[in-house]
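Good day; I would like, with your permission, to put a structural problem before you. What I wish to show you is a protein chain and, alongside it, a tokenised description of its three-dimensional fold. Please examine both parts with care and let me know of anything in them that strikes you as inconsistent. Thank you for your consideration; the sequence and its tokens are set out here:

***
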Amino acid sequence: MLFSSISFVFLFLPLFLLTYYLIPKKYRNIPLFLGSLVFYALGELTYLPLLIATLLINYIVSKVLYSWEGRRRRYLLIYVLLYNFGILLGFKYLSDSIPLGISFYTFQITAYVVDVYRERIKPARSVLEIGTYLCLFPQLIAGPIILYPDIMGQIRSRTYRMENMEDGLKTFVLGLSSKILIADVLGKLWNEIQVTGYESISTPMAWLGAVAYSFEIFFDFNGYSLMAIGLGKMLGFKIPKNFDKPYLSRSVSEFWRRWHITLGSWFRDYVYIPLGGSRGGTAGTIRNLLVVWLFTGMWHGKGWNFILWGMSIFVLIVLEKLGLEKFLQRHIVISRIYMLFYIPLSWVIFAVNDIREVGVYFSRLFPFLSSEQALYVNPNDMENALMRYGIFFVAALLLCSRLPSKIYAGCKEKAVGILALFALFGCSVAGMLLNASNPFLYFRF
């Protein structure tokens, strides 16, 4: 089930919230866990048993890990990690279908078991407790990735305030409108380019398409994250922020500290640092970064484009660590130009699954790399696209700046801010009614 659907907004969510708040506070994890399973089943009933099996196996293993001592604890941890990642990689690389949310809930439950093994935390006290953590429906399908120590206290006892409900609704509307009014609209342009064929677009249109996809993926994924945060507030939870204006970054390293923050933190804490982090000198740091970005590319999909995408980020981050980042921080204009090229080019590699088609698209972006005269193919296609989508590009560009956040912070409690949110909600509902529901992009990763 999509957050950005009429059935969720006007049926599932109201019925769930009514049930949730009618139950006494100390029992609310029961409807939350069961409701989350229903939510998952409505979107992916076939793989609901897999989710439950992963939950139960890791819960039992965590209990045993906590009670055992010696070397056999390590062996048991290895076995459960092989199960978790074997299932994940099996579906990603050997199957044509991927269970919804498997990448996210696998990372969450793996972090939980590893934290028990490290004796950072005690095991969950019950299946209900760990089930509420893993299956919490606001973030079950596409994150943000939540660590058990960060939410354990909220699972056991949380505060319910009317202002949190109100703030949650506002945050949800912001996320919904980001998805429906920006991401889905600019996504239509990217789809048009795919249907037309990369070889049939002009160089200006190729650059416009790359920018369109860059905006689409940001407002799609950030929109989902905002909706998750808003829903969490309605339920009494504080779900971590997943984006921090990444398109204002002045280096690739900074970009990946601001984009999908919870995934970056997971790789840092459970891969990079255990490998040695930056403690092994330059060579060790480079090796560990290589592993992290190779795994990050593989996590997103089985296409060679994802490996190329991850390796391109690895190379740039290494160069920045060797001195480029210090240079960029001293030269603001150069750093802005650098990122203006990096962002759309990186997302083109990410978006185009066929590695040969990536080459075709780059030949359109850089016509001097090809013998064909891409500049003269479809010479008016960019102008026609801007006539239809120009206002949405302007809106997306403004929303990536700091200004909207400052304006929203100052007026969200005022009548003008509330009226604006009602208008955004109305436009979003109209968009949902007039257009087919578009799955969130990260549903397929």
